[in-house]
Each structure stands twice: as structure tokens, then as C-alpha cells.
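Fold this sequence, please.
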Amino acid sequence: MLTGFVLTILLIVFGSLEAAGILREIANYLDAHVASSELIASAIGLISAVIDNVPLVAATMGMYDVTSFPQDSEFWQLIAFCAGTGGSMLIIGSAAGVAFMGMEKVDFFWYFRKVFPTVHIRHDDNLI
């Protein structure tokens, strides 16, 4: 119940940021200061370790329109991959991880020590 509430709040926040034009400004900044779209997608994947990937990808869709990156382009496929695997880097990065934490009584620090290094290495390996 709480996870659904948090996701709803995040979607509202990112929707407000998009309506205010802030997401577009962030996209313009990233385009001007980051060398490649692969690095942007990778950064979004790392952010997804902390923020749930569903609202983060929705926000990314608000940042870039289809004239910048057409539907089903490599950029969107890489965003889906990075956000999906990035959400598993930390247990708090996805609704499923938070639910797993609650149901199985998994401690954040245990997950960080045991799982994070492997997921991070695999995430980076697959980008190459």
C-alpha cells in the first residue's frame, strides 16, 4: 500500500516538473555538457538505484521528445536497460525491492554488502 502511494507521489512530482519545463531544461543541460547519450542513459540507470525506475523513465520521456530520439531508438532501449538494472543496484531502487525488504526482513546494509557489488559490475559490463 505504501509503495503504491510513494510511486503515485513520485509520478505527480515528475509530472509537475515536466509541466513547469524543468525536465526539458535538465535535458538541455545534459545534452550540452555530457558527451554521449550512452553516458546520459548510464547516469539515469545510476539514479534509478535510488529513485524507482518507473517514475524515472516517465520523467526521462518528458525530458526528450520523439524528435530528439525516435520511438524504439537505441537510446530508449538503453534507458530501459539501465533503469531496469539500475533499480536493482540498491534494494530501495524499485518497488519490488522495497516489498522484498519488508516481506523477507532483508536489511539494506546486508543487501548493499552482498548484492550491490555484483549487480553494479554486471550493469557496467553490459554497457560495454
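The first helix runs from residue 2 to 19. The chain is about 75% helix and 0% strand.
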